[in-house]
Specification:
Strand content: 25-35%
Number of helices: 6
Oligomer: single chain
Number of strands: 10
Order of helices and strands: HHHHHHEEEEEEEEEE
Length: about 210
């Protein structure tokens, strides 16, 4: 077990091409890679460090198979992650090709308001786009029709950062506050006043949130 652990740690630093090659060296190396779930760990490393991978993981839904499983759930086997990796690479290559060749459909949302047309931050999924604006509001847009379906008001300064999940939208503003909104109703449920300057960025995950200010 000790030697397997050392081998697993060393092999976990390999990139995809090297990991494929290592599997072909011998049955023992293949076993170490398989039992160590090294393809899963490689994908997780990519998702942690690359925004494109992170975006695809969230949009395609395979992020649910990564990192720590939810209570009562177990992760897929090694073969699933080994087959998932080339599928992800094809997706990324298609995105890169479309971007370089201009194979995309451009759509615009008119964010003009009485005070400003500036958009400082946004996050989106297949159903909606959530944007933070300079006019102190958060606007939620239908992803298909591009029509504004909800406006969240409460900040007294520009909305500089936001993040949401199925339950909440959390936003940071130049008014030095962090506000928590019900993702379904749009109701403001909490206001955090712990910064003395504008809140520039925030991230939350697994019940923990990190915020930073000017």
């Amino acid at each position: 077990k000790g030697l397997d652990h050392v081998a697993e740690n060393i092999l976990s630093y390999l990139d995809a091409e090297s990991l494929y090659s290592a599997e072909l060296v011998c049955k023992e190396w293949y076993r170490v890679i398989s039992e160590g779930m090294l393809w899963k760990k490689l994908i997780e490393r990519k998702v942690r460090t690359d925004s494109v991978w992170r975006g695809l993981a969230e949009r395609r839904g395979w992020i649910q198979y990564l990192f720590k499983p939810r209570p009562g759930e177990t992760h897929r086997n090694h073969t699933f992650y080994r087959n998932l990796f080339p599928t992800i690479m094809k997706d990324i290559e298609a995105l890169d090709s479309n971007w370089r060749m201009g194979n995309h459909k451009l759509q615009k949302i008119n964010c003009r308001s009485e005070n400003s047309k500036g958009v400082y931050c946004l996050q989106y999924d297949d159903q909606k786009i959530v944007s933070g604006l300079r006019d102190n509001t958060i606007k939620i847009w239908d992803r298909n029709t591009l029509q504004c379906i909800k406006v969240l008001t409460g900040h007294t300064g520009s909305v500089l950062c936001l993040q949401y999940d199925d339950k909440v939208i959390i936003s940071g503003s130049s008014d030095s506050t962090v506000r928590v909104w019900d993702a379904t109703t749009g109701e403001m449920v909490n206001t955090l006043i712990h910064h003395c300057e504008a809140v520039l960025h925030l991230r939350f995950n697994n019940g923990m949130m990190v915020t930073c200010s000017k």
